[in-house]
Specification:
Elements lengths: L2 H47 L16
Length: about 60
């Protein structure tokens, strides 16, 4: 085996492992983003399910002089 083939044989497993790690990182990020999206949608649904206020909403302060 000449030097070029030997170097290629040594680097190839490293590049393969690096590619696999990169693919896993992408998959993990996608799953994380999907989870964040699902939690945001669930929170929005909970907020929208709250009864809506009718009339004036606020604090009344009585001041006697």
């Amino acid at each position: 085996m000449d030097d070029v083939n030997l170097r290629t044989a040594q680097i190839s497993p490293f590049l393969s492992a690096q590619r696999t790690a990169s693919d896993l990182n992408v998959a993990i990020l996608k799953l994380g983003n999907n989870q964040i999206k699902a939690e945001g949608e669930a929170a929005l649904q909970l907020i929208q399910a709250l009864p809506q206020a009718v009339g004036n909403v606020g604090n009344t302060i009585n001041i006697a002089v």
